[in-house]
Design the sequence.
């Protein structure tokens, strides 16, 4: 390896491998060890492609290469080698491994083989260069039970986590006199395809080629490389990209967090970039071809326009970071209006509204007015959900509304409400109070939506001076039928003139649904009203339950009355 040093370019992602990736590599190494032990010298396991590009260097005798693709694999192999180094007691073997990880230049200085960028550099260098650091790290983890060890790996820095994973595997599974064989396998039985680019090769074209071949490069990585390969923009990298997307582990975790978009899991950064591009284009954007859409948007842009794009992207990203999300939504109160809005659209799985919301957050600085706008939109979406009106037109609907909002001299809740009230088609209309009331009596919803409706009503009912704690965490709540679906087992109180099929339908509507902590077992769930109401008192302290457990009977009449009571709360939350 001589004096070769591989530099991870700034536009590359941070190290992201997790236990399942480490486990797969470890299994591959073990398989090859067994093959070698059985006498099979020809077996090997291909682990991917490494692409490098030579850099210009001013240091005598040093050969520097940009590591364009393969940093995840090479970093992991280095962590594995370092773990073997720390376990073996053979000094000759230690020296051999060390020469694989570091080299001495013409000035007599030690240099690390892989030079990570930014966030990962310190962690990686500490692992590769410091035995004392590694022993302290291992001492803190080695006595943990397996389940605790795995939990801590999930929250630990990825580079430290990878080292600890392999250290544990080696300590528990590898005999000391077999370590040399394992090192041989890593170096000789895990081949890669090695592609070296010249100084004049187009890295962006290589990235595009890799992407087209199915190697997973994220939209953010591709966009970063495209944008900051331009000389007019490259000096803005720290200010406009790194400071927002990669400044620390919290930022990286935030942008890489999984979110739901329809039936597909997307990362936060993907949803942000989608929202930002929709704002720019004011037209539908295909999430599956997001980078191609960005390339088309940036094509033929002048240097001045690219600089403007980079700065505006940063500004919108900072706004997006301030929008309530994730852990911020775990426990809320009714008066936390912004959090409640994002809680509702998360549970209703409405992501096509994000470009409109991002634009509003960016351009409406008055928080009280922004809250009023969100209340209007929450009412609109909730009424449509309760009335079971279609969501199929939401993409075009919110694009149209975004275009209207962008033309407003001042964005106000009244302006947006006036626009929504103009819609009259079923695909876009704002349901009236009568339609909303009728839906509470007669509409059946999927459990996820019913749970959110009942949760918001519970927050509203807790919002008073007599409640010690007005905050609720939705986790752990489930929807319970006050009259069970299997009512025929223990309920024979059909009112005169009530058909069984009507009861079967009515008990699925909101008037018969409530929230309980956990889930009732089947015997309690299907028991008679006398026993059922006792169980409901135990499993729920919410008014939407306890106000009705004093009833002597529970049938369609009580369901109708309770649906009307729920509606009276709902009409105060979601006004038209």
Sequence:
């Amino acid at each position: 390896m001589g004096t070769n040093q591989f530099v991870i370019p700034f536009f590359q992602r941070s190290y992201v491998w997790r236990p399942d990736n480490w486990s797969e590599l470890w299994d591959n190494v073990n398989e090859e060890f067994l093959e070698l032990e059985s006498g099979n010298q020809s077996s090997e396991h291909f682990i991917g492609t490494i692409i490098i590009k030579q850099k210009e260097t001013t240091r005598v005798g040093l050969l520097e290469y940009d590591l364009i693709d393969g940093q995840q694999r090479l970093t992991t192999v280095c962590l594995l080698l370092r773990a073997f180094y720390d376990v073996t007691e053979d000094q000759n073997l230690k020296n051999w491994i060390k020469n694989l990880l570091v080299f001495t230049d013409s000035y007599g200085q030690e240099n690390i083989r892989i030079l990570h960028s930014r966030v990962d550099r310190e962690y990686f260098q500490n692992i590769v260069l410091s035995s004392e650091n590694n022993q302290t790290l291992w001492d803190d983890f080695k006595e943990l039970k397996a389940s605790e060890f795995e939990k801590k790996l999930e929250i630990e820095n990825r580079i430290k986590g990878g080292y600890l994973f392999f250290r544990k595997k080696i300590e528990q599974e590898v005999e000391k006199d077999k370590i040399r064989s394992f090192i041989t396998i890593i170096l000789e039985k895990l081949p890669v395809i090695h592609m070296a680019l010249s100084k004049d090769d187009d890295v962006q074209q290589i990235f595009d080629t890799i992407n087209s071949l199915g190697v997973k490069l994220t939209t953010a990585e591709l966009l970063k490389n495209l944008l900051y390969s331009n000389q007019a923009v490259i000096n803005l990298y720290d200010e406009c990209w790194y400071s927002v997307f990669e400044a620390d582990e919290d930022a990286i975790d935030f942008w890489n967090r999984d979110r739901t978009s329809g039936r597909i899991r997307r990362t936060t950064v993907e949803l942000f970039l989608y929202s930002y591009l929709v704002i720019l284009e004011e037209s539908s954007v295909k999430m599956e071809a997001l980078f191609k859409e960005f390339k088309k948007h940036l094509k033929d842009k002048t240097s001045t326009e690219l600089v403007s794009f980079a700065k505006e992207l940063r500004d919108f990203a900072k706004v997006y970071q301030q929008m309530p999300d994730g852990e911020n939504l775990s426990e809320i109160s009714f008066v936390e209006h912004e959090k409640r809005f994002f809680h509702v659209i998360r549970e209703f799985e409405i992501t096509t509204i994000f470009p409109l919301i991002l634009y509003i957050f960016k351009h409406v600085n008055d928080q009280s007015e922004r809250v009023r706008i969100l209340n209007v939109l929450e009412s609109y979406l909730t009424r449509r959900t309760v009335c079971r009106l279609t969501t199929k037109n939401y993409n075009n609907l919110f694009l149209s509304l975004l275009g209207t909002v962008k033309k407003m001299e001042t964005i106000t809740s009244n302006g947006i409400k006036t626009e929504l009230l103009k819609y009259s088609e079923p695909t876009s209309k704002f349901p009236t109070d009568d339609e909303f009331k009728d839906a509470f009596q007669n509409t059946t919803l999927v459990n996820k939506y019913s749970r959110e409706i009942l949760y918001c009503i519970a927050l509203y009912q807790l919002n008073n001076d007599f409640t010690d704690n007005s905050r609720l965490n939705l986790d752990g709540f489930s929807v319970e039928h006050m009259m069970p679906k299997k009512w025929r087992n223990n309920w024979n109180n059909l009112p005169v003139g009530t058909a069984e099929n009507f009861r079967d339908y009515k008990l699925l509507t909101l008037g018969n649904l409530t929230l309980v902590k956990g889930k009732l077992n089947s015997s309690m769930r299907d028991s008679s009203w006398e026993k059922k109401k006792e169980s409901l008192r135990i499993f729920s302290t919410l008014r939407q339950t306890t106000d009705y457990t004093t009833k002597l009977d529970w049938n369609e009449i009580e369901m109708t009355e309770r649906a009307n009571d729920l509606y009276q709360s709902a009409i105060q939350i979601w006004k038209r």
In short: The radius of gyration is 30 Å. The CA atoms of residues 382 and 574 lie 7 Å apart. The longest strand covers residues 63-69. The chain has 27 helices and 13 strands.
